[in-house]
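Board notes, transcribed. Complex of a protein with zinc ion.
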Amino acid sequence: MTEYIKFEDIISKNGDSNSKSVPEVNNKETAKTDSTKMKLQCCRCRPDWFVVDGLGITCSGLTYILILFGEFVVIGVILLPFFPGSPWSYIHAILFSCCGILAGCSHLRAMTTNPGTIPKGNFTDENVKHLGLKSGDVVVRCTRCECIKTERAHHCSTCQRCIRKMDHHCPWINNCVGEFNQKYFVLFTFYIMTLSAYSMALAIHYVLRCSDNDWKGCTIFSPPTTIIFIVFLLFEGLLFGLFTMIMFCTQLNSVIHDETGIEHLKKEARVKQGNWKERLKDTFGGDFGITWFSPFSSLPHHRKKHEFYDV
Ligand SMILES: [Zn+2]
Ligand SMILES: [Zn+2]
């Protein structure tokens, strides 16, 4: 829930009493706040980016298993036995492995990068005063994590915190997609989409060539085992290829139009800044180049205002 409070109400309340002027809430809310504080203390024993969510941990672990399965079938079942000694076999194996490594690294960065967390419980008099607001201005407070809600921030019920420029919570990366990890999420969908298309093209070519030949000299496994591997690979490629293609296009559209998934759903109207080229540069880090495709490059943090939010 979001609460809009006039700046002067907070200040006048502070003048009346020496106690903290966080707005009064009912008993239920107070209990919720206490519980939030307890959880906050507990959270200090694990990294800030790690979200304790069973579905998210399962899905993110499954991602690596699926990538490794794809690598095994493409390299171990298709390429090396089918093209023994051929340079093409090694070229495809190296390219496919590079895509797999880049997909895995993009996933790791998306999962382990703070998406833009606003610290829980930072709605204090001191922080509100630092905002430099004047009479008539409104401060937005999230009643679930007791933070000062910045513009375009949304509360994630899975992460139990407010996230700057939150797009959505993704169980496949066990994290929110927000201001600071969107690039890595886009790269993750891009590389999985590429891997899927690449594996399906190699598998279809392999099946067409080998089925004419009764699979002779095509495989080190028995033909039925090989067919099962290929069917699973094609199913995985089709399913995740389509899924990541849709996600990739949606994310790119979100960056170009400067509208997060939540803003699109809520049809929130706001003044947009810059043109689409500037937005792409801002998200992917500078002018177009190899760094746009690298999950190893770090992003400039645009924390021009409200630095104290991170106290
Ligand atoms: Zn919140
Ligand atoms: Zn989340």
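Residues 16-43, 303-311 have pLDDT under 50 and may be disordered. The pocket of zinc ion (ligand 1) is lined by residues 142, 144-145, 147, 155, 161-162 (CB under 6 Å).
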